[in-house]
Specification:
The complex is a heterodimer of chains A (186) and B (572). With 186 residues, chain A is mainly alpha-helical. Helix content of chain A is 79%, strand content 0%. In chain A, α1 packs parallel to α6 (133-159) and α3 crosses α7 (165-185). The two termini of chain A are 33 Å apart. By secondary structure, chain B is an alpha/beta fold. An eight-stranded mixed sheet of chain B has the order 14-13-15-12-10-11-9-16. A seven-stranded mixed beta barrel of chain B has the order 1-7-6-5-4-8-18. In chain B, α6 packs across α11. Classes of the chains: A mainly alpha (186), B alpha/beta (572).
Chain lengths: 186, 572
């Protein structure tokens, strides 16, 4: 299964990002460095979230079967920080709307990809044992790319002051969905 | 400003160093994938005896699994279940130069029908006789292993059959298994010491008393050393010897019953490898020491070998005893005891000359016979070639209690009532010999070992249970092993002058050589065939192509969506 399989999973995960970067015209704007900045912001936000969670939410002791709604709800709320992070990235970048969205989303999603998917793939997909979950993981990263683009777009829309009133509510709902996605899935 | 920047940079470097170290370790360290299933496997014997090599030579394997039905077996690991095992299949695997053979044994041997067990027992020496470079392993079956086996069987038997499309589908869905062992190649163990133990009970009244020697070898033998428990052969012999030690030490502790014979008890090691322990002990005692009990007046030597079952008793001799000799006395006393006290037991003498041209000696008494000491072996087996002496099927004891024996156990085993009866026969006979009871006119019906002196079945049961709780192959028992230590402790409790005796193989011309890597952990990894990878790569390339086109022409998609949603806006 070795290296070839790893190559398969790697290409499945990374190439869409590459394609998106090339084809969305970002390269014309010399956006590479800005994407990296967005990635750095992602790292920073994740670090803050982890520190916050570790400090204020001790491990909940109690039965294993009962789902701690309140606790998990609080934890999911912390994911609001994600949105704040995206907003921060976009506000620092001057330029057109789509440009800002794309840069923020690309950088963010790439950073997430590298951090959370690279090592499991390296260690797992290279082994002798075959498991479908590595293909799943790679495909999942594609989906999260689209998800982050959408999220960045919604955040941007939220902050626009010239947004027609009728759109405000759906936008808010969508934002809420983004944040509590994990929570709702449970 | 620059100082700040440089400070930041320095901090970054400091942080990145451990990170890069971790990365480096991750990249360099060997792959440890999770196994689909991990199980212990026990390798077939590998040893050299007197220059002749036996058994499987190789230990490592890293091959795909197949069952016997598959057409291509070369460089594959062939898996067989005991129920389907046959010598022809085994030969077929070897001829096609298979990578390895794994034989799956059931957890509970008693579920196997008698004829399969018998057949396997007869095949064991043949498996060992053909020296092979293919590693042969035995594994105990559990659910996961069974499922691995059935999956492999399905894929093996369907291999040569179908069309290209079916093969493609098959590769996408099938699960192959890669069998990997974790150990190294097997190599000879240097300087292995086989331990033997001796102890004595001195007779009453002065020097120059005749000596009776009681011998039993405590190791066991089977096609896989880690699976040789040797319940009957020779766990029963050891149990009887220890029980006799207990009884006679009791008799000898009272002045009135202290007989005029020295009793020497000897637990020999390496018995299944042509009685190495006994051989060296005799050499040391007869050639290298000035005075030893063995040199002077030896009445006879009685070797106990496989006495845990059946209603037959055979006294094996290499020379029929002459009238009037102590050996003849023993023979007569045995006959007396059997006819008067245990008429259900069938006793006879078997005469077999020592054949020095054979590879190995038949019974242990032949070692003594070569050194001109009168010796017998007592056994319930008629022939030394009986497969019950070298089988892994010889496992834990079954006590046929009065409440009713459970299922009849296939294969050799120890029957505790019969073991007790045999112990009693031997004890009574020895008592009659050392107290000279027949000459004094005591009738054959008198039983000495009754009430407080009786042979304790519980004692025998616990001894046999302890002996069969772990494998006792000679390769596994070095001088520090717990079995040797416990035997020494037990002997010390009842006998005097308990000594250890070590046998090490000669450096230049070794009589025996043992090899290691006898127990391994085998991992079965689920793998997909190589074609699957290519197929997957093709699919991913197609997917990426579609994605590329979609993104390139995103504009089209977007305008299409606008057109769809636009009429609604216009209406609004």
């Amino acid at each position: 299964m070795t290296l070839f399989h790893f190559g398969n999973c790697f290409s499945l995960a990374y190439f869409p990002y590459f394609i998106t970067y090339k084809c969305s015209g970002l390269s014309e704007y010399n956006a590479f460095w800005r994407c990296v900045q967005a990635g750095a912001t992602y790292l920073f936000v994740q670090l803050c979230k982890m520190l916050f969670l570790a400090t204020f939410f001790p491990t909940w002791e109690g039965g294993a079967g009962v789902y701690d709604f309140v606790g998990e709800f609080m934890k999911a709320t912390v994911d609001l920080a994600d949105l704040l992070g995206l907003h921060l990235v976009m506000s620092r970048n001057a330029g057109k709307g789509e440009y800002k969205i794309m840069v923020a989303a690309m950088g963010w999603a790439t950073a997430e990809l590298i951090m959370s998917r690279c090592i499991p793939l390296w260690v797992g997909a290279r082994g002798i044992e075959f498991d479908w979950k590595y293909i799943q993981m790679s495909f999942d990263s594609n989906i999260s790319l689209v998800h982050y683009i959408a999220m960045a777009a919604v955040v941007w829309m939220f902050t626009r002051y010239d947004l027609p009133k009728s759109f405000r509510l759906p936008v808010t709902i969508l934002l809420g969905l983004c944040v509590y996605k994990g929570f709702l899935m449970e | 400003m620059f100082e700040e920047a440089s400070e930041v940079l320095e901090n970054m470097l400091k942080w990145s160093l451990p990170l890069s170290l971790v990365l480096f370790l991750v990249l360099v360290c060997p792959l440890r994938a999770e196994a689909a299933h991990e199980f212990s496997v026990y390798r077939m014997q590998q040893y050299d005896l007197q220059g002749q090599t036996y058994g499987s030579r190789n230990a490592i394997l890293n091959t795909e699994a197949r069952t016997v039905e598959a057409e291509v077996l070369s460089r594959r690991c062939v898996m067989m279940r005991l129920a389907d095992f046959s010598y022809e299949k085994y030969q077929k695997a070897l001829q096609q130069s298979a990578g390895a053979v794994v034989i799956i044994l059931p957890q509970n041997m008693s579920t196997m029908p008698q004829d399969i067990v018998q057949q396997f027992m007869e095949l064991e020496p043949e498996l060992l006789a053909t020296e092979t470079i293919v590693p042969v392993y035995f594994a105990l079956e559990d659910e996961e292993l069974l499922s691995i086996y059935t999956q492999t069987q399905i894929s093996s038997s369907s291999q040569g059959s179908s069309s290209a499309a079916e093969v493609l589908l098959h590769t996408a869905t099938a699960n192959g298994f890669q069998m990997v062992t974790s150990g190294a190649q097997s190599k000879a163990v240097s300087d292995w010491a086989i331990t033997s133990l001796e102890g004595r009970l001195s007779g009453a009244g002065g020097e120059d008393l005749p000596t009776i020697v009681l011998v039993a070898h405590y190791d066991s033998f089977g096609v896989a050393p880690w699976l040789s428990y040797g319940a009957d052969s020779n766990g029963s012999g050891v149990a009887i010897l220890l029980e006799l030690a207990r009884l006679f030490s009791r008799l000898y502790s009272y002045k009135r019953t202290h007989a005029g014979y020295n009793l020497l008890f000897f637990l020999s090691g390496g018995g299944k490898f042509n009685y190495q322990g006994t051989k060296r002990w005799l050499e040391d005692n007869l050639d290298h020491t000035d005075s030893s009990l063995l040199q002077d007046n030896v009445a006879f030597v009685l070797c106990l070998d496989t006495l845990g079952n059946s209603d037959n008793l055979y006294l094996h001799v290499s020379k029929p005893p002459k009238e009037g000799s102590p050996q003849h006395v023993l023979l007569k006393e045995l006959e007396t005891v059997v006819t008067h006290q245990h008429p259900d037991l069938k006793f006879s003498m078997v005469h077999k000359k020592i054949n020095l041209a054979d590879d190995t000696l038949a019974w242990e008494h032949e070692r003594f016979g070569i050194r001109r000491l009168p010796a017998f072996t007592l056994s319930h087996l008629e022939s030394h070639r009986s497969p019950a002496r070298h089988s892994i099927m010889d496992m834990r004891s079954v006590s046929s209690s009065l409440e009713g024996a459970g299922e009849a156990t296939a294969g050799p085993h120890v029957d505790l009532t019969k073991l007790r009866r045999n112990t009693k026969v031997i004890a009574e006979t020895l008592a009659r010999v050392i107290y000279n009871l027949t000459e004094k006119g005591v009738s054959g019906d008198l039983e000495i070992f009754t009430e407080q002196m009786q042979v304790q079945e519980d004692q025998l049961a616990s001894l046999v249970d302890w002996l069969t709780a772990q494998p006792r192959a000679a390769q596994l028992l070095d001088k520090d092993s717990s079995i040797v230590n416990t035997l020494e402790y037990y002997l010390n409790h009842y006998l005097k002058d308990v000594k250890r005796h070590l046998v090490r193989a000669d450096k230049r011309d070794p009589e025996f050589v043992f090899y290691d890597q006898l127990k391994q952990t085998m991992n079965a990894y689920r793998v997909k065939p190589a074609i699957f990878d290519l197929l997957l790569a093709f699919c991913i390339a197609a997917y990426l192509g579609v994605l590329y086109l979609a993104i390139q022409n995103f504009g089209l998609l977007y305008s299409f969506l606008r057109r769809v949603t636009a009429p609604r806006v216009k209406q609004h």
